[in-house]
Amino acid sequence: MADETQQCALAPDGDAVRALTHDPALTGPRADCVRCGDPTELPADHPGITFCPVCTWQEAQRIACSG
């Protein structure tokens, strides 16, 4: 019997990883979390939806448990 477990390809490419990693040397305004309003580790001009670390974890849990 073959193992038919589904696996998601969630590994981002190198540029996405660098854009999402914390860099304490960065200065300037930070983007606010779209869910709770707390500051994130991303710069304010970062495109797309930005979540703080807590909301990122909660969103990952929500996605992992749906389905």
Detailed description of the structure:
- The chain has 67 residues and is an alpha+beta fold.
- It is built from 2 helices and 2 strands; from the N terminus they run αββα.
- A two-stranded antiparallel sheet has the order 1-2.
- A hairpin with a 6-residue loop joins strand 1 and strand 2 (39-43).
- The protein is elongated.
- The two termini are 24 Å apart.
Features:
67 residues, alpha+beta, 2 helices, 2 strands, 30% helix, 12% strand, elongated
What's the topology here?
Elements: H1 14-20, E1 30-32, E2 39-43, H2 53-65
Antiparallel strand pairs: 1-2
Tell me the fraction of residues in β-strands, as a range. 5-15%
The rough form would be described as elongated
Low-confidence stretches: none
Spatially, the strands of the biggest sheet line up as: 1-2
Total strands: 2
- Largest sheet, if any? 2 strands, antiparallel
Computed over alpha carbons, the radius of gyration is 15 Å
Alpha-carbon distance between the two ends: 24 Å
If helices are DSSP runs of H or I spanning 4 or more residues, what is the number of helices? 2
- Oligomeric form of this entry? single chain
The chain-level structural class is: alpha+beta
Query: What fraction, in percent, of the residue positions are helical?
Result: 25-40%
Q: Average pLDDT, to the nearest integer?
A: 75
N-to-C order of helices and strands: HEEH
